[in-house]
Amino acid sequence: MENKQRLVKLGLIQTYCEDQPSNNIERVLALVKEASSQGAQVICLQELFNTPYFCREYDEAHFNLAQSLDSQFLDQFASLAKELKVVLVIPFFEKRAQGVYHNSAVVIDVDGERKAVYRKLHIPDDPGFYEKYYFTPGDEESGFQVVDTAYGKIGVLICWDQWFPEAARITALKGAEIIFYPTAIGMLKGESRRQKKEFSDAWQIIQRSHAIANGCYVAAVNRVGKEKQLKFWGKSFVAGPFGQIIDEAGEKEEILIAECDLNRIEAQRREWPFLRDRRIDLYDGITKRIID
Q1: Which of 20, 80, 182, 225 has the most C-beta neighbours closer than 10 Å?
Q2: How do 217-221 and 178-182 pair as beta strands?
């Protein structure tokens, strides 16, 4: 007997950022309401949604942008989640303790309860993306979490995490039906259109491959707009359990709504049983930096 559809509508809010965090928060609260009015049940914001991408430079003053877990703006989103009966993924710059800062995301369920705090595990350090200066990596306690929400089991990874198949695999093995990747990725001034296409293609391909290898949904939400020497390319998308693009945004502010049938995960894993055929007895080497 065929299972009934388990349909869930995702809302990815792809927007720009102003210098003033309060302006970003106010605008995004309105966008969350708009996404809900379009039927979105699980709504994800972009990485560091309420601040400019300050990691483009070294500046100690940027640490003042960080907020603690008891900040009022998170209470605002919790109240809105409860009002709208939606699940929210809220990525932000977290001050955990004096001198300890994280690139984090809070998952809020439909009752307004904070179900999890994920802290970015893989921290890049590249020209224009100097994140190691600002962020302490997440640890075992806050990493690779799966949250059983009102609309399905979701996992959250952040931006640079998306390039690592191990992160997607562990999150899927823990039961995630949808893996969200809040993101801030774009081009540096002076990089060519050809480079942009190559980078953008690779960014999408690696995440679609995670969907295929793990037989789950992947949702990536990127920011847009110019911020000094960086231009963010947007192109948020949702991929199905065989890597198929369900929907994709453009390069301007947009609310992307995508409907997912979570029962397709079981069907996909039966037809392409990658998880069944894993040779877990042979994979000890994956925990080594280099295999000699």
Answers
A1: 182
A2: parallel
List the catalytic residue out of 9, 17, 95, 120.
120
pLDDT of 4 reads: 73
Residue type, 101: Y
Cα 172 to Cα 158: distance, rounded to the nearest angstrom: 15
115 is catalytic: no
Q: How do residues 229-267 score in pLDDT, each as one tens digit?
A: 999 999 999 999 999 999 999 999 999 999 999 999 999
Q: Is 286 within 8 Å of 169 (Cβ atoms)?
A: no
- Residue 47 annotated among the catalytic residues of the structure: yes
Amino acid at 250: G
β-bridge partners, 94: 67, 102
Place of tokens 């003042």: 64
Q: How far is CA 264 from the centre of its chain?
A: 21
Instruction: Enumerate residue ranges in the chain where pLDDT < 50.
Output: 1
Dist CA 51 CA 7 (whole Å): 33
Q: Which domains does the chain have, with CATH numbers?
A: 7-285 (3.60.110.10)
- Catalytic residue (one of 159, 235, 254, 260): 159
Q: What is the reported pTM?
A: 0.96
Most distant CA pair in the chain, distance = 60
